[in-house]
Design a protein that fits this description.
With about 140 residues, this protein is mainly α. The protein has one domain. It has six helices and no strands. Helix 1 crosses helix 3 and helix 3 packs antiparallel against helix 4.
Length: about 140
């Protein structure tokens, strides 16, 4: 058993902090930019190049609307927006919980990391399967 954890020596904790930070930035972006004004600074490159919407078109609008409690409107912008939003929200909570558990239960860190990876892969595939399928259709 380790005597103490120093975060800078723990790649797992560093990754969790980075992922949680990225998710917070995504949520902040979604909260700042309004779907009603359409002032999003990030545009869809695929749509700009081809003129055709891609599977992820409307996700920014969808996320913004979900944060504002407008679920039906969010669905209209991207039918997969809610499932992707739930994935990110769950991942944020997982990063917090798994980091806490990792620190408190040093004897089971390897098992925790294995559980985290396998569980995250499963929920990623569930959330992003429509996008994965669209990539294979495009190829």
């Amino acid at each position: 058993m380790k005597s103490g954890i120093i975060i800078k020596n723990e790649p797992y904790l560093i990754l969790n902090i980075v992922f949680a930070g990225v998710i917070m930035l995504i949520m902040l972006y979604s909260g700042i930019f309004s779907p009603d004004t359409g002032d999003y600074p990030v545009v869809c490159i695929h749509e700009k190049l081809t003129g055709q919407p891609c599977a992820s078109c409307g996700l920014s609008h969808s996320f913004s609307l979900i944060l504002r409690g407008r679920i039906n409107d969010a669905y209209m912008w991207n039918e997969n927006g809610l499932r992707v939003f739930i994935f990110f929200a769950a991942q944020f909570l997982f990063r917090i919980f798994f980091s806490w558990y990792y620190i408190k239960n040093q004897d089971s860190q390897r098992q925790l990391i294995s559980l985290d990876i396998s569980g995250s892969i499963v929920i990623f595939l569930i959330a992003f399967m429509p996008f994965i399928e669209s990539i294979f259709k495009w190829l």
